[in-house]
């Protein structure tokens, strides 16, 4: 499986994309729903560049603990730099399916845009439940690829590009089955929410302005897509913007649950 790579370049690109106002607003929603409290022990699975981990650490304070886990050394370097002044943050290199923590270690856990990359989601959820104390809270956010509305003139080419882009994930349509998987893993689902990323214009700092280049870099070689297809697709999107016809909307699905 040729998933997106979070090496030095991939990690820095993700860091830039996740600084966009669209993703800042998403993190605000996540933080408000997770509501970490002073003194709590919180785990961020797949903590990436560490933006959310930093906010969690500030919320739990020095009497609490904020742990981030990620298999990418490049991501962990960015997160370490971001949280250097918060000594109650700890970062570990590891996999969602083999969490390096004892049973009942955390009061709450969060994972945003991560389980869609993990081949064995039931194994990852079983691990999450093991490390949460009984009654512990969890928040998971992922994207469903079918929720994307993106205006292009050549819809057949657009469909091929998106089918090729699906290959960057293990599960491009995870949200629709996540509540059932959570229940099977021993969680009580307490909330379902949608957070849309809406770009009615192509502005340089919008989420889709960066995402379209990440997609165009990835898709050649998948599902018969060529570099020329990817370039023509980008040109089509730019032309929509020039004509005042740009439109992009993608849904993030957010689930809250408690360990039973
Ligand atoms: C799209 S980024 C999201 C980062 C962060 N959660 C956020 O929302 O800012 C996906 C992250 O998942 C991590 N990841 C991929 N596979 C993983 C796995 N099997 N276990 C844990 N993390 C994983 C990647 O290294 C990357 O940092």
Draw up the topology in text.
Elements: H1 8-17, H2 21-34, E1 41-45, H3 51-60, E2 65-70, H4 73-82, E3 89-93, E4 106-112, H5 121-131, E5 132-143, E6 149-150, H6 155-165, H7 178-184, E7 187-199, H8 207-218, H9 227-242, E8 248-259
Parallel strand pairs: 1-2, 1-4, 2-3, 4-5
Antiparallel strand pairs: 5-8, 6-8, 7-8
Helix pairs in contact: 1-4, 8-9
Residues 6, 14, 18, 45-49, 51-52, 70-72, 75, 95-96, 112-114, 117-118 line the site of S-adenosylmethionine.
Which tags fit this structure?
260 residues; Rossmann fold; eight-stranded mixed sheet; 9 helices; binds S-adenosylmethionine
Number of strands: 8
Small molecules bound in the structure, each named once: S-adenosylmethionine
Helix coverage percent: 25-40%
> Based on CA inertia axes, which overall geometry fits?
globular
Class by SSE composition: alpha/beta
Q: SSE order in H/E notation?
A: HHEHEHEEHEEHHEHHE
Low-confidence stretches: none
Name the CATH superfamily classification.
Vaccinia Virus protein VP39
Number of domains: 1
Describe the structure.
- With 260 residues, this protein is an alpha/beta fold.
- It has one domain (8-259): Vaccinia Virus protein VP39 (Rossmann fold).
- Helices cover 39% and strands 24% of the residues.
- The protein is built from nine helices and eight strands.
- Strands 1, 2, 3, 4, 5, 6, 7 and 8 form an eight-stranded mixed sheet that branches.
- The radius of gyration is 19 Å and the shape is globular.
- The mean pLDDT is 96.
- The structure holds S-adenosylmethionine.
- S-adenosylmethionine binds at residues 6, 14, 18, 45-49, 51-52, 70-72, 75, 95-96, 112-114, 117-118.
């Amino acid at each position: 499986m040729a998933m997106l790579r979070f090496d030095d370049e991939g990690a820095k690109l993700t860091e830039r994309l996740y600084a966009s106002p669209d993703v800042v607003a998403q993190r605000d929603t996540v933080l408000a729903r997770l509501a970490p409290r002073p003194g709590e022990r919180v785990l961020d699975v797949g903590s990436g560049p560490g933006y959310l981990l930093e906010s969690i650490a500030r919320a739990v304070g020095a009497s609490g603990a904020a742990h981030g886990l990620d298999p990418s050394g490049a991501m962990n370097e960015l997160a370490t730099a971001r949280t250097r002044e918060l000594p109650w943050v700890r970062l570990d290199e590891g996999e969602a399916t083999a969490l390096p923590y004892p049973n009942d270690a955390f009061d709450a856990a969060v994972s945003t845009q991560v389980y869609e990359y993990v081949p064995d989601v039931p194994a990852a959820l079983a691990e999450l439940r093991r490390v949460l104390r009984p009654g512990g809270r969890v928040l998971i956010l992922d994207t469903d690829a079918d929720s994307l509305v993106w205006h292009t003139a050549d819809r057949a080419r657009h469909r091929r590009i998106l089918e090729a882009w699906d290959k960057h994930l293990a599960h491009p349509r995870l949200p629709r089955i996540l509540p059932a998987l959570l229940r099977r893993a021993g969680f009580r689902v307490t909330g379902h929410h949608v957070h849309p990323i809406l770009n009615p214009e192509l502005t340089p700092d919008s989420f889709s302005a960066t995402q379209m280049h990440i997609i165009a870099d990835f898709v050649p070689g998948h599902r018969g897509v060529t570099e020329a297809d990817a370039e023509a697709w980008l040109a089509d999107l730019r032309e929509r913007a020039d004509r005042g016809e740009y439109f992009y909307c993608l849904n993030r699905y957010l689930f809250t649950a408690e360990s039973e």
